[in-house]
Amino acid sequence: MVKKNNTVLFTVFLGILILAFTPAWAGTIAGSLTVKGLRSPKDVVVYITRGPNQKGELPQARFSMDQKNLSFAPHVLLVPQGSTVHFPNNDKVAHNVFSMSRTQKFNLGNYGPGESKKIIFNKPGLVELRCDMHAEMSAYILVMKNPFFGITDKKGRFFIPDTSYLEAHGVTSIKDLPPGKYTVRTWHEKLKSVKKTIVVPKTGEVVLKLKLKRGTPGALFKR
Fold first, then answer.
1. Could you tell me if 182 and 195 are in contact, meaning their C-beta atoms sit under 8 angstroms apart?
2. Which of 181, 184, 177, 142 is closest to 33 using CA atoms?
3. Where are the domains of the chain?
4. Where are the alpha helices (DSSP H) in the chain?
5. Same fold? 24-53+148-223, 55-145
6. Which of 92, 122, 134, 158 would disulfide-bridge 150, Cβ 3.0–4.6 Å?
7. What's the CATH number for 55-145?
C-alpha cells in the first residue's frame, strides 16, 4: 500500500512540475500599416525586439534566396538565428553572391546555373547581399533573435508570429506569443523605423496599426 501511495504522489508531483514549466501561450498580433513616400507597403518587417527564445525546428527548416532573371528572390528574407540559407542559381548565367555586412561577411564565389551553395547564419542582424557580376542585384537577409516576426503583404497587413511564413519554411511549432509586455519595431530599407510598446493579454488578439514614412532605417538590433 505504501509503495502504491508513493507512486500516486510522484505522479501528481510530476504533473505539477509539467504544468509549472509549461508556458501559458496567448495569441497573435494582427496589424496593418500605411507608408508615406512609397508605392507599396509590402516587405516591411515588423518584429518583437526581445521575445521568448524559441527556435523551432531549425534543422528541418529550409530557407532559400534564389537567383533568377538577374534578381534575388525574395528581396527580403527573414530567418531565425541559427538557420541555414540555400542560394540556388536558377538563372541562365553565372552569379557571385557576397556580403560585406558587419553581421556576416562572406563570398560564395562564381557558380553557374543549376548549382547551389549554403550558409549558416548564427549572428542576429542585417545582411545585405550583392552579386559581384551584376551590380543591379541586391537583397537582404534579416537574421532574427526569435521567431516572433512578420512581413507585410501588398496591403500592409502582417501577423506576429507569421505562422504561415514559418510553416512554409518548415517551422511548425511556433503558434502564439506568451502574455506580456513587448516592444514592436519595424525595418524597411527606405523607411524610418518605428517602435511601439504593446501588451499581449492572456487571451485574445492584439490589433496594431502603424504609420511609416521615408527615411533612413534604424539598426535592426542595438549592439
1. no
2. 184
3. 24-53+148-223, 55-145
4. 2-20, 163-168
5. yes
6. 158
7. 2.60.40.420
